[in-house]
Design brief:
The complex is a heterodimer of chains A (379) and B (260). With 379 residues, chain A is an alpha+beta fold. Helices cover 53% and strands 15% of the residues of chain A. Chain A is built from 10 helices and 10 strands. In chain A, the strands form 3 sheets. Chain A has a 4-stranded mixed sheet. Chain A has a 4-stranded antiparallel sheet with strand order 2-3-7-6, with no helix packed on it. In chain A, a hairpin with a 2-residue loop joins strand 9 and strand 10. By secondary structure, chain B is α/β, with parallel strands linked by helices. Chain B has a single domain, classed as Rossmann fold, CATH 3.40.50. Chain B contains 6 helices and 13 strands. Chain B has a 9-stranded mixed sheet with strand order 11-10-9-12-8-1-6-7-13, sandwiched between helices. In chain B, strands 2-5 form a two-stranded antiparallel sheet. In chain B, strands 3-4 form a two-stranded antiparallel sheet. In chain B, strand 6, helix 2 and strand 7 form a beta-alpha-beta unit. The longest helix of chain B is centred in the N-terminal third of the chain and has 17 residues. The N and C termini of chain B lie far apart (58 Å). The model of chain B has no long low-confidence stretch (mean pLDDT 92). The chains are: A alpha+beta (379), B alpha/beta (260). Chains A and B meet through helix 1 of A and helix 2 and helix 5 of B.
């Protein structure tokens, strides 16, 4: 087993870390304070090929690996979790299902513009009454001859107000339950499709989370993704991949909070010495560091399996569960180590703590991850 | 246009410490980077390539580990990379280094050579100018801008301490470039994917046009007698005041220190 990064990955890590430090970190506090989507960063990422890392070259991507893509999500999230999730939702939830289930025409139409960052991608599964119980879809798609007519509402959709392409799940045959759900590629501007107002969130406040509203929305026939009735499977498979991205986001947040806390505890003096010198600090930080490294190995192992075509559903669930809960613990303790200053917005650890909470909730709550893991364990 | 860019792998001096007893750099565990002024030089070459089309060759002299820096240059957009690496070059000072590089340049077809102003480890600013001398080329140092004119000449801004000289260069020349003037691009993801599919040519001393006695330690007249860290200045004070208040403040400070 080889735990080292390949030479190409090392070069990539050097680039993405430098990019995160110079281009993303300086905007992180502002993006959070102003609840502002970091569009200028997305444009820069597009030009460098970061928006299309695992997309094959023939579809305008960089032809990189899942491992490189999750390294990017981790490094971006280390300094700005909003930027991390913009990339994760775009890549895992929009481009990946098109790559895996799209027709050649769909791939040629959508992937080059998404991979170049000219278009941003999003994914719509969650509804007001279909969260963890995703099978309770109420959005309907009716076959109207040369097109599909969609009616319904999706909520909590990441990237929504800036996205151009949406992967949307809708019921095409309610009598068949999950086998009556189909996936569609919906474009911004299609008749009857509109975006609701942004959610006011606790964290990842720049990520433009909104409702999608379909009122007799007309979707061309050729925009059905995969076969009719296969949407639920596509959604679940997409979320398996997405979980590696969110696990990386949590890992990045945890690493960022570790970095900040090491720096702060070395500088902050109480009782005549740096608080890093106290055994309480050292033992707690040692435990956190161990957990962060364990999370990293889980995340990398899941990505490695995906890259090598090995089933990774349980691995992705374990990676997300452990990374998200580790990051919550790390960021909570990071605030504690920073004391009163940590509770102010002068230091980034309060943002990291608020940002991380969502990683225990979206793309499957921690409880859902346990269901997935147990499902594999007891099958 | 064929452009040669000279690059050096250096320790990242922002993370380096100095041995307080020996006065030498402690290089253990310090990451190596492309020298910033050289990276600025590569950026200038790549901008000329973007605007007018050019073939950019990066050259370096150093140990085999410098390979990764040349891969970075390829991932940024350079077309060819050559590393001069041979035990015969070991212990070279700036004169022997520039001499070896001149031997390499003589074997290549070029219209322009770009070097960084100076390297952050040695800070001599000598290799670029010496390379021009070995090759008999005109040189323009401290370049902050360079544009290719329609007549094929280069219009160059040379930054002096208190002024900028605007020069037009005709024919082959060597420029030394300031990192601060050329914000270097990042490697692109597709460039990174290709970087290890390309070749970094490793050349030994036999392959270049040089006299062996002028290489490495034997070709190096410079001997380092002693090096020591500079005493750090204390941080200054910043006052946001009107010009009138500023005059009073400065005068009072100078009086306090009995300067006036």
């Amino acid at each position: 087993m080889d735990f080292s990064y390949s030479k190409t990955e090392q070069l990539f890590l050097q680039m993405i870390r430098e990019f995160a430090e110079k281009e993303v970190k300086p905007l992180a506090a502002e993006v959070d304070e102003q609840e502002r989507f970091p569009l200028e960063t997305v444009e820069k990422m597009g030009k460098l090929g970061i928006m299309g890392i695992p997309v094959p070259k023939e579809y305008g991507g960089a032809g990189g690996t899942v491992q490189m893509y999750i390294m990017a999500v981790e490094e971006l999230s280390r300094v700005c979790a909003t930027t991390g999730v913009v990339l994760s939702a775009h890549t895992s939830l929009c481009m990946a299902p098109i790559m895996e289930h799209g027709t050649e025409e769909q791939k040629m139409k959508y992937l080059p513009k998404l991979a170049s960052g000219e278009w941003i991608g999003a994914f719509g599964l969650t509804e007001p009454n279909a969260g963890t119980d995703a099978a309770m879809q109420q959005t309907m798609a009716v076959d109207a001859g040369d097109k599909w007519i969609l009616n319904g509402t999706k909520i909590f959709i990441t990237n929504a107000s800036y996205a151009n392409v949406f992967i949307v799940m809708a019921m095409t045959d309610k009598s068949k339950g999950t086998k009556g759900i189909s996936a569609f590629i919906v474009e911004k501007g299609m008749p009857g499709f509109s975006i609701g107002k942004p959610e006011m969130k606790m964290g990842i406040r720049g990520s433009a989370t909104c409702e999608l509203i379909f009122e007799n929305c007309e979707v061309p026939k050729e925009n059905l993704l995969g076969a009719e009735g296969k949407g639920f499977g596509i959604a679940m498979k997409t979320l398996d991949g997405g979980r590696i991205g969110i696990a990386s986001q949590a890992l990045g947040i945890a690493q960022g909070a570790m970095d900040e806390t090491v720096r702060y505890t070395k500088e902050r003096k109480q009782f005549g010495r740096a608080i890093a010198k106290f055994q309480n600090t050292q033992f707690q930080m040692a435990d956190l560091k161990t957990k962060v490294e364990a999370a990293r190995l889980l995340v990398r192992s899941a990505a490695w399996k995906k890259d090598n075509g090995i089933p990774y559903s349980a691995d992705a669930a374990m990676a997300k569960l452990f990374a998200a809960e580790t990051a919550m613990e790390v960021t909570t303790k990071a605030v504690q180590f920073h004391g009163g200053y940590g509770y102010t917005r002068e230091y980034p650890v309060d943002r990291m703590m608020r940002d991380d909470k969502i990683t225990e909730i979206y793309e499957g709550t921690s409880e859902v991850q346990r269901m997935v893991i147990a499902g594999h364990l007891f099958k | 246009m064929n452009i040669i860019v000279c690059v050096k792998q250096v320790p990242d001096t922002t993370e380096i410490k100095i041995d307080p007893v020996k006065g030498t750099l402690i290089r253990d565990g310090v990451p190596s980077i492309m020298n910033p002024d050289d990276k600025g030089g590569l950026e200038l070459a790549l901008r000329l390539k973007d605007a007018h089309g050019a073939h950019v060759t990066v050259i370096s002299m150093g140990p085999p580990q410098a390979d990764v820096m040349l891969r970075e240059a390829l991932a940024m957009g350079a077309d060819r990379a050559i590393l001069l690496s041979d035990r015969k070059f070991a212990g070279a000072d700036t004169l022997a280094t520039s001499y070896a590089l001149s031997g390499l340049c003589r074997t290549l077809d070029y219209d322009l050579i770009i070097a960084g102003r100076q390297a952050i480890d040695g800070d001599t600013a000598q290799v670029g100018p010496e390379l021009a001398e070995h090759l008999g080329l005109p040189q323009i140092t401290y370049v902050a801008d360079a544009k290719l004119l329609e007549n094929g000449n280069l219009l160059i801004h040379k930054e002096n301490e208190d002024s900028v000289q605007v020069l037009e260069a005709e024919g082959k020349c060597l420029l030394t470039v300031l990192a601060s003037a050329f914000d270097a691009r990042y490697m692109s993801v597709s460039g990174i994917m290709e970087a290890y599919n390309k070749e970094v040519e490793v050349w030994s001393a036999d392959k270049i046009d040089v006299e062996e006695g002028k290489l490495g330690l034997s070709g190096s007249p410079t001997k380092v007698f002693r090096s020591f860290p500079k005493a750090m200045k204390e941080p200054g004070e910043v006052h946001e005041v009107t010009p009138e208040e500023a005059v009073e403040l400065i005068v009072n400070k100078l009086k306090e220190k009995h300067i006036i």
